[in-house]
Amino acid sequence: MSIPAVMSPNAPAAGLSGEPDRDPITPPTVRMGTPPFGADGHGGATILIAEDHEDSRDALRTLLDAFGYRVHVAVNGREAVERARALAPDLILMDMMMPEVDGFEATRTLRADPEFRQVPIIALTAMEGAREQVMAAGCDDFMCKPLDVRAFLDRVRTWIESGRPAAS
Ligand SMILES: [Mg+2]
């Protein structure tokens, strides 16, 4: 398996920005020699990626898969809710702008379900100013596209390790 060039920790992650990857020439070198956490990653943890943009979804899946996570995907918010209920993931990565049911509504739906009050949901969005909105919808964290790969992996690990604070 190869890691797309967009995953270079030193370059903007073009494939995660919703933009087409404009650099198909760079060889898909694995640049994960010094992962932000142990080489064993977090094998066993299940992550659901809800993302309608195919390239972004594939890039995220490839990256997280390479780090030992069990990765599942959904292409819209409706599917995100269905798959979350079927999989009981340890973490959900939620694109906010998706067709049919967007990430805001999917997050609100999941949070209304007691089974999903404790599952960390990280919003992924290109909307810089959307933090308040996504937190109000029930997301725990907010990462702006294009993603910084190292920071992203670090955040994923932290949320999986610590989980969501118990609701008061
Ligand atoms: Mg989208």
Q: With helices defined by DSSP (H or I, 4 residues minimum), what is the helix count?
A: 5
Instruction: Say how many strands there are.
Output: 5
Distinct small molecules: magnesium ion
Straight-line distance between termini: 44 Å
Globally, the shape reads globular
Low-confidence stretches: 1-15, 18-40
How many structural domains can be distinguished in the coordinates?
1
The first-level CATH class is given as Alpha Beta
Helix-strand topology string: EHEHEHEHEH
CATH architecture: 3-Layer(aba) Sandwich
Describe the largest sheet.
5 strands, parallel
Strand content: 5-15%
Secondary structure category = alpha/beta
Q: Report strand order across the widest sheet.
A: 2-1-3-4-5
Which fold does the CATH topology refer to? Answer: Rossmann fold
Look at the structure and give the mean pLDDT.
81
CA-atom Rg in angstroms = 15 Å
Query: So, the CATH homologous superfamily?
Result: Response regulator
List keywords for this structure.
168 residues; alpha/beta; Rossmann fold; five-stranded parallel beta sheet; 5 helices; 32% helix; globular; disordered N terminus; binds magnesium ion
Structural features, described:
By secondary structure, the protein is of the alpha/beta class. The chain has a single domain (15-22, 35-162), classed as 3-Layer(aba) Sandwich (Rossmann fold). The protein has helices spanning 54-66, 77-87, 103-111, 131-137, 149-162; strands spanning 46-50, 70-74, 91-95, 121-125, 141-144. Helix 1 (54-66) links the parallel strand 1 and strand 2. Helix 2 (77-87) runs parallel beside helix 3. The protein is globular and about 30 Å long. The protein starts with 45 loop residues before the first strand and ends in a 6-residue tail after the last helix. It binds magnesium ion. Residues 52-53, 95, 97-98 line the site of magnesium ion (MG).
